[in-house]
Amino acid sequence: KFKVLITRSNKNVNLNHYIIITLLFGNIMKYTRFNKNSKAEYNLIFIYEDKLMSLNKSVLTDAVREDVKLAISNKLVTGKSGSMNTFSSKMYEKNYFLVGLGQKSKLTIQIYEKSVNSAIKKINSYNINSISLDLNNIAISGYDHIKAGIIEIEKTQYNYRQKDLSTLKECLLNVSSRIKNKELTSTINTSVAIANGLNKARMLGDTPPNICNPTFLAKEAKKLEKLNPYLKVEILDEKQMRTLKMGSLLSVSQGSTQPAKLVIIKYMPVKNKQPIVLVGKGITFDTGGISLKPSPNMDEMKYDMSGAGSVIGTMQACAEMNLKNNVIGILACAENMPSGVATRPGDVVTSMSGLTIEILNTDAEGRLVLCDALTFSKKYKPKYILDMATLTGACLVGLGKYPSGLFSNNNVLSKKIKDSADKTGDRVWELPLYSDYFDELKTNFADIQNIGGRYGGAITAAAFLANFTKDEKWAHLDIAGTAWDSGNDKGSTGRPVKLLTDFVMSNK
Ligand code: BES
Ligand code: MN
Ligand code: ZN
Q: Which residues line ligand 1 at a C-beta cut-off of 6 Å?
């Protein structure tokens, strides 16, 4: 009666990665609400290992449901997390993609997002034009699974090299009838804007460091102006930064032929309202400088501008959504190179704040560009300052690659960031800023030194930054472990754009 094609996919299956960058290049995917007459080539249905027999009535015809149940009892469909089974029902002219989510009570945001991602990637490789997604049986409290599902679909449409473009054009969403059309349309628009921003951040991160230099990042930021009349970009060159006495930031670009840039992206659609300021570390390549890094995997230091990339992506999303909130993005862009005129370990520089810094390790350069950008940001009288930085290998050692490290001098602010992280699945984990850590930065030769002792490197780095934001409500996200993936799936993740857009949207 029907043909069962088992296309089980697991981590080792090499999924097709060569897909069009849908939104960046204008091939916009259409999302529509599913209705009884909708016809998609593939129907994607999520199933639970422990709820296999209660398949959703609205999407499966009775006859097909019986077929599927037969396959279940023959153990052809398991519902295990990571499993995917394709049913081609010639008779009913329907194709079903059964995506396992594991046990219902153990469903997490991560399992759901990974399942959507790998299912759509698979579909991309099948040359399919349209799919329907049944999102009725996903329930994680406080989590917008429709929004996340769309973002995940859009993520699969990204590929740095535009090879073997996906044919997917249409997604029919089968969602609860309680969701009004207007609400669904706004969810779709918001999700696509966020996904575009996220994919933009990924594109910037993946761009090779001979192209993506500080000047390139400044130009990319400038391009955002055409999105929204409320978005304005200012670019400060080294001469202007010298006038502002940004001696710390300038010490980092000193050894490079690429001039540093400080980029200010203002999005101020609301009158008389304090902005949220987002500061991003934009080291377009980090060799370590005279404190040279070891050679293996040094190429990954092209991702050292991911903080700045996430700020550009977030600003783009806000402008595209026409968000009614004031946000300012500041990018501290420089290249960290060794040379005859590079900073030496032992050099003392004066930061914009007036604090003098002894540079004991030229590889601790992120904090040196950030401290001046943070001081600069005070002139906007920010409601909150958040900085994003691939700041320390120690953060990766301590927390692994799943949460970003969170540090803050304000409990209300850190709670808000944690809420956004929980809501979006863009996870964070808070680490302490005890005064002991600040003591490790004392030196006989300047007000402060740029490294702490041997242990707790992510925290001493954050403590260094905290010295420059004493009077503001400030938080720092160390994204060293979360901004990109290594190995076979090497590439920028676009984190923490989802967290930041949610934070900006939730704090109007
Ligand atoms: N960009 C690096 C941090 C980094 C390293 C991120 C590896 C992701 C993977 C940063 O500029 C750096 O080099 N930090 C040093 C600080 C140390 C010298 C105190 C580090 O983590 O080793
Ligand atoms: Mn470094
Ligand atoms: Zn760095």
A: 286, 304, 361, 363-366, 390-394, 396, 451, 457, 480
Residue type, 381: K
Burial track 93-124 (b if 16+ CB lie within 10 A, e otherwise):
ebbbbbbbbbebeebebebbbbbbbbbbbbbb
The closest ligand to the CA of 461 turns out to be 1
How many whole angstroms separate alpha carbon 52 and alpha carbon 401? 33
- Residue 270 pLDDT > 50, yes or no? yes
pLDDT, position 38: 67
Report which of residues 367 and 168 the model is more confident about. 367
Closest C-alpha residue for ligand 1 atom 13:
363
Catalytic residue, candidates 302, 367, 427, 498: 367
Amino acid type, 463: A
Q: Which of 69, 245, 293, 418 is catalytic?
A: 293
Task: Check residue 59 and give its pLDDT.
Answer: 60
Tell me, what amino acid is at 167? Answer: T
Q: Ligand 1: which atom is nearest the Cα of residue 451?
A: 19
Atom of ligand 1 nearest to the CA of 283: 1
d(CA 371, CA 369): 6
E strands, 159-314, in order: 170-174, 231-236, 261-267, 276-286
Nearest 5 degrees, angle CA 470-CA 474-CA 480?
120
- 3-33 confidence digits (pLDDT tens): 333 222 232 222 222 111 222 333 456 777 7
Q: How far apart are CA 276 and CA 420, in angstroms?
A: 15
- Pocket-testing residue among 286, 335, 365, 392, ligand 1, by greatest number of atoms within 8 A of Cβ: 392
Tell me what pLDDT residue 33 has.
78
User: Which H or E element spans position 306?
Assistant: helix 306-321
